Amino acid sequence: MDFNDSYYMNLALTEARKGEGKVNPNPLVGAVVVKNNKILGIGYHEVYGSHHAEVNALNMSKNSEGATIYVTLEPCSHQGKTPPCVDRIIQEKIKKCVIGTLDPNPLVSGNGVKKLQEAGIEVIVGILEEEALKLNEVFFKYIKNKNPYIFLKCGITLDGKIATRDFSSKWITNSLAREKVQYYRNKFMGIFVGTNTVLKDNPSLTCTLENKRDPFRITIDKNLEIPIDYKIIANNFDEKTIFIIENSKINSEKYNLLKNKYKIKFISLDEKDFSLEKIFKKVGEFGIDSILVEGGSSIISQIFENNLYDSGEFFIAPKILGDEKSIPFINGFSKSKIDEAFKLNNVKFNLYGDNIGLEFSK
Amino acid sequence: MDFNDSYYMNLALTEARKGEGKVNPNPLVGAVVVKNNKILGIGYHEVYGSHHAEVNALNMSKNSEGATIYVTLEPCSHQGKTPPCVDRIIQEKIKKCVIGTLDPNPLVSGNGVKKLQEAGIEVIVGILEEEALKLNEVFFKYIKNKNPYIFLKCGITLDGKIATRDFSSKWITNSLAREKVQYYRNKFMGIFVGTNTVLKDNPSLTCTLENKRDPFRITIDKNLEIPIDYKIIANNFDEKTIFIIENSKINSEKYNLLKNKYKIKFISLDEKDFSLEKIFKKVGEFGIDSILVEGGSSIISQIFENNLYDSGEFFIAPKILGDEKSIPFINGFSKSKIDEAFKLNNVKFNLYGDNIGLEFSK
């Protein structure tokens, strides 16, 4: 095996992923310190607000003078919640810095590289850059204009249904597929479903993984119709349920009850602004960098109509309902030519026993 | 590499597959003659009515005295279109005969083994038996009671549609998936579509592969409605188009025209017997051992309702119509619980670029 730059960068990328769900809206970052082909230190950005990956890797390293540091994202050069990482790298007398990709944050981009070079450190940028960009696609989108990254998840039958005619949908997909959904619930900062899904399913929208981080539970409740004994209200112990409401409902009796007793958070819009695009924008401004959209039909249809998704995964079960009254995952269009069909791009398949996952992106 | 019995049997199985589409309703058979770990001869049953695999392999072998013959199916012991293979094996002074699986044909089963053993030849049965059974699932089903093997093929969008609202369906799946369909058209002896599919699509139902063997084109034309300029009538140069008609249509003017001028073949039933089950039975009695069913909606729905399929493959394209007026691959049921859904078994996935094939069997 050739222990080259790609090898160590790949290690740093793998390390970085351990921070999934814990660092939003910060980026995922991993770092490895290497001297004479020996790893002196390795680390990642573990929790929002704590040490950056470079610092964790350097803290672990003994005698790192003359070493090479591999870091998936350009080290920061500005004072944030923690001191600039470039200062620490310079201080440790690192000889060479290998970077996956530049930081898209205008506060940092290129400055880190410049400061390192000025200190006489050799800098290489762009090793496994594609993987490094993919790792932080959420961060890279959100930093631009606070628009959250939208990931679509849908569990469907072979005939494209998400529920039977009586709206029962437990369980279309198998346990392996449902476990992957839990992975997404941990990875993305918010989970979003439509009003109907809450009213029909009374879901808890939490993450059942070990060492989980529950997402913010976001739904539209324009007119405050969701009963207070529903799980997302009654079980809001972590105060992470957010309702999108109509402006005129502010300070209504139910609003005050939900706010004060159940600690529900609110994002409000004018009636005329109730489009998903504006709702997502507001959720982004609230500080949520990524949204896992779990349906239902109406929400998914609006997302495709307005081209609002960044990526997603359809989980297909080998089941068939064959019932025109069952609930399709998408509806409301009148495509008369196959060429007019919505076409999913960058398709990739994942196997989950007898279920298949179809991953796609814009 | 260990050149054991499984190795040579696997070679014989691979060889056998070369006969696909050419030997129906005979079984696919492959044979390898081996002495001192050296292959003396290898062959397969190439064309219906010609030499069996054992004979082809032995004809190629020089000095096969004391050799082992591997054959995927029990050698025949009765006089058919060709002399019994066991006689030839005995005559060649073969020492050992390794067999994939016994012949289910009551005329042969066990007799071949017995005759070989009586001649002092060592016989081993059951090497890669599962693969040998799978290889000839068509033959094994058909030999029992002349019921043809039913294979279902369907190209669908992610929302389970086979055509847009105006019935246009070119092309839902990609070229790789469509090439696999051509493979099936060569493999199975007949291709079957419903009247609507013929009337809407005017398909040719031929096989476009090189060295192809076109399947029998079978459709229901109860009341002889298909126009004579349609491809399956006008292009019936090989005289392999079969219409399922109502008994009373026999000797009608159009019947005589189709029969005499266009060489259409007919299978006729009483009005009351127009079920797919009876139609398939009649097709089997006609001598067709296997049917590739290519739709449309009404035929597929009847097949699931009556549990008539043996296996199949759904080709799923990453396209979405989202149109309730587009044509679903199956319809007419009223499942109100997920547990009532048709569940496909023995699922296996095949990748065709951005299309996925979901193989299943009963």
TrEMBL record, chains A, B:
The active site is at residue 54. It holds the Pfam family RibD_C. Gene3D superfamilies: Cytidine Deaminase, domain 2, Dihydrofolate Reductase, subunit A. NADP(+) binds at residues 155, 169, 171, 197, 201. Substrate binds at residues 185, 205, 294. Residues 3-123 form the CMP/dCMP-type deaminase domain. GO terms for molecular function: 5-amino-6-(5-phosphoribosylamino)uracil reductase activity; diaminohydroxyphosphoribosylaminopyrimidine deaminase activity; metal ion binding; NADP binding. The keyword Ribosomal protein does not apply. SUPFAM superfamilies: Cytidine deaminase-like, Dihydrofolate reductase-like. Binds 1 zinc ion. It comes from the Bacteria. Its EC number is 3.5.4.26, 1.1.1.193. GO terms for biological process: riboflavin biosynthetic process. Zn(2+) binds at residues 52, 76, 85. Pathway: Cofactor biosynthesis; riboflavin biosynthesis; 5-amino-6-(D-ribitylamino)uracil from GTP: step 2/4; Cofactor biosynthesis; riboflavin biosynthesis; 5-amino-6-(D-ribitylamino)uracil from GTP: step 3/4. The keyword Transferase does not apply. NCBIfam families: eubact_ribD, ribD_Cterm. In the C-terminal section; belongs to the HTP reductase family. In the N-terminal section; belongs to the cytidine and deoxycytidylate deaminase family. This is Riboflavin biosynthesis protein RibD.
